[in-house]
Amino acid sequence: MNMKPLHPIMLAGTGSDVGKSVLAAALCRIFRQDGYHPAPFKAQNMALNSFATPDGLEIGRAQAVQAEAAGIDCHTDMNPLLLKPNSNHTSQVVLNGRPIGNTGAYDYFRKTEGREQLRREVCAAFDRLNQRYNPIVMEGAGSISEINLRDTDLVNMPMAMHAKADVILVGDIDRGGVFASVYGSIALQAPEDRKLIKGIIINKFRGDLRLFEEGSRMLEQLCDVPVLGVVPYFTDIYIEEEDSVDLAMKSMQAEHGKVNVAVVLLRHISNYTDFNVLERDPRVHLFYTNNTDDLKKADIIILPGSKSTIDDLYELRRNGVAQAIIQAHRQGTTVLGICGGYQMLGIEVLDPEHVEGDIERLPGLGLLPTTTTMSGTKQTRQVRCQYGTGYEIHQGETRPMGDAHPQPLLHLDDGRYDGYVVDDKCMGTYVHGILDNAAFVDMLLRPYADKLSEASEPFDYAAFKQQQYDLLADHVRRYVDTDRIYQILSYD
Asked: Annotated active-site positions, please?
C-alpha cells in the first residue's frame, strides 16, 4: 500500500515515567494497523533491561518492545546510545550496540568533543532509520524542561529539531501538578523549540473524564497548544516496560494449587522481563523475594541476571540467602540460574582483570560444578535451541570445573552448547528469554505435575503480547484524537 509520507513524531515528557514508552508502542501499533510502516527511535536510553538484536547487538528493551508492536525486527538504529548503570555510580556506554567504556554522570554531560561525536552518531542512526520507515515514532527521555542540560541534550528537543519532528508533550496527571508541569515545560522552551510542540496528551487519568473537560480547555488557552487526548490509567493491559516496575510490590506469599516460583530479588537485578511469562501462566504463582523464609515456600527458585554478579553474590552470602537456596535445593526445590544467576550457582566466580571490582575470587553456591571467569568482552547474540529462541547478553565465560564433564542444558542451532544441567531440578543458562518458550516452561514444571489441575493449559506468551498491543491501540484510539495527529503529521 502506497501511504502518504508523514512527519516523524516525538513523544516528549514533563518528567520521567509519565508513560512515553507505552504511548510510543501504542502509536507504533496504530500506524501499523492503518497501513504505515513505522519504526521506534530513542536516541539515548538509560536502562538495565536490554535486548539483543537479530544481528547480535544491544539496545534498550523499550525500543525492542515498540518494534514488536510495529511488527518489525529491532535494530540498533532504533536506540543508538544506551547507558547501563553500574554498581559504582557509573554507567556502561553502549554505542550502536557495542560497549565503548564507562563514564560518570558529570563527565557524560560535560560539553566535550566526544559529546559532539555522540550527537553525530545518534543523528546518523535516525537518518538511516528515516530512510527505511515511515513514520518514525520518537521518544524523549525524562523531562524536556531541564534547561541546564539543553546544550548537551542528545535525545529531546535538539533531536526533534534534527528530525524535523512534531512533538507531543505527555503529562502524568496521576502524580499531581499536571497544569504546572505542562505549562512550565512549554514556557521554559526556547522559541525555536516551542514551535515544535504541536499537541499535549494527559496520561494516567483516574475517575470521570468529564471532570477534566474544563481543564483541557484551560491548558489549551494557557499553552496555545491543543490537548489531543486524556488517557485513562489502565491496569488490564500488559505492555513490557524497562525499569519502572516495582518488583518489591510483587513480593507475595506462596499460593496453594499452583507451582510457586520465587525469583531472588537481587540488588542489581537485570532483564527481569525474563519472568513476565511466568507472571501470567495460570499454572504458576510467581513472586520476588530476598527473604529466607519466603524461599522455603517455593517449589522453584530462580536466580536472575545481574549487572554486577560478584557484588550480588557477595550480598547473597552475607545475608543468608545463598545458604537458604542451598538448603531449599537439598529438600527438593528446583533451582534455575539465568545469566548472572547461572554464574553464581557454580563453585566460584573469578575476576582477575577486575572487570567488576576489587574482588578477584568469590565462592559461588556450589550447586553446579562450574567456574566462571569474568571478562571485559561482552557477548550479545540471539540464539535458537531445542526449546525455541532467546538471547545472550553477558560478560564472562563459564565452563566445567576440574574433571567435571560437560552437561549442557541447551543445544544451539549454530553447533554451540549453553549452560549446565545436573538434573531436572538444578540447571543454569546464559540465555535470556528462555522462559518465553512453552516447551522449556513445561520441562521446568514437569516435576510438579501433581500440583496442577487437569484444566491447566500452557501459556502462549507470543500470542498474548500481540493481543495486548491491539488492546493498547484500541485504548489509545478511544481517548486520543488520532485524526488530529494525522493532520499534524501530514505534509502540506
From this structure: 339, 432
